[in-house]
Input
Amino acid sequence: MAPSHHGARAPAPARDDADGSAAPTDAKLRHFIRLAGGFWITRSAGRAWALVALNLASLSAAVYTSVLSTRYTKALYDMLAERALDRLPAVMALLAVVLGASIVQAAVAFSVPTAIALEWRQWLTGRYVARWLHGRAYYEGQRRDLLDNPDQRIAEDVDAFTHAAVTNAFAIFQVASMGITFGIILWDASGDGRVTIGRATVQVPGLLLWVTTIWAVLHTALVIWVGRKLPRLVAAGQRVGADFRFKLIQVRRAAEQVALLRGEAAEAAALTDRFSAIRTNVYAQIVQAVRIAVTNATVGTVEELFLLLLVMPRYLAGGSSLGEMFQAQRSMGQYNGTIAYFAQSATALQTLRGTIRRLRAFDAMIDAVPVPPASERPTDAATMVAVGTLSVARPGGATLLTLPAWRVERGQRWLIRGPSGIGKSTLLRALAGIWPEVAGRLTMPARETTLFMPQTPYLPVGPLRDAITYPSRESVPDAVLRDLLGRVGLAERAADLDRAAEWDQHLSPGEQQRLAFLRPLLLRPALILLDEATSALDPPNARAMYALLLESLPDLTLISIAHSDVLDAFHTHRLVLGGPNDAREQAP
Output
């Protein structure tokens, strides 16, 4: 770290709130392209492109099937009007073709878009997981409270986005193809387009096409206006739903503490409050959905009569047969239903907008995560850690601790002391390279040679062997693991090596800390940073863990935080922290 070098402090993004629409239009467009474009130019998209081709072929066939259905309507009504029952076999054959094609297309429409969305979701989920973990956005987001429920955005919002995007993309293709096809049919069905109003006669080529288009556009605009509040409500609903689930998980994971404190009533009240937020949001969404549904139902009911009145004058004037009249009405209905897709799908489209909004907030949080400044590497073989007036700040920018020149030689064992809240743990996190609010000069060994041991060890859900060897993914023989468990007094746990469980719920705090001392014995780091790593152990066990560590790794360099004198004998040096500008080194 260069002198006076500050960690990158990107401005924190606004928390994802109920309306969440502060981003300008061009930023929204860039984000949508970022979401939608990346996957389709990668090699991973090969299977998805093949499925897209299959679905487009099916949709094209569906357009032709819709045309056949109007021909079936014309043939049926002409047969009935002319009482020509000899045409019945041909009419039924046409119906069989329409029905068979519709069944095949329905099967394709149900399965293929879902498979395409799954391919896209797999790629996009992997991308989000990599970005979330690689830049420590998962840590910064929680440390600075930048965003709510990032896990839900990866697990659920990505799924909702890909599914809705695929569904709507194919729907728009079908809108375009069917709109063109039935637009041509309506143009031809308009005849000369003469309209008589009183004594005046006006000729409008393609009259049926223009009137139906205007009707559909007005219908769409009305529905969008009626349901304009839905995207905000969807985004808020996803948030309060995730908050409720998180509270349930919190109660499950802290079951013993809740039971010991008799906190059932408090937890019930908290859960009730969170569910009340869900209830309020759901009813608000119901109101919006009902307004959209009522609008569509009203327009749809009027539309049937309106379209019939449009084609009836030509039939009454003898310009078309009964079958042609109903064919024209059916074609207008098909065309209007196609163009009015955006009105009929208003709820789904508004939900998609809300999902994209949440993913946009997630991307903004990841992009805004500050990058911890890179530390220098030791040039002197005897030096392990070197500090030159290091300033450590809180996330808000206020200085927490200033450390003057400090040097840790290879093999030294330092004990850091100081009152609670002075910044001891934060200093260790700065040394570990995960605290970006630092300035000054810092020399540290390579990160892969450093191990951080916190007060509460992380034990991933799964087999006990994975909890012991974390974060290494290399296989360790059972005999080695059994021997190590015996050395930390957990020999009885050897039978659980292949048992999957939530080990932070099954092991006592002391057992968890003893288990964590197996990791340095396996990883064999050069430097260990211990943040009260024996706080849950009694003095004999605490001393036994340090003795085991130093016996197994005699050249190890230690920097420890401890509040008691139990571990003094295992350290050669002491650093005492006072006020923000008061840190002094004590002789061994």
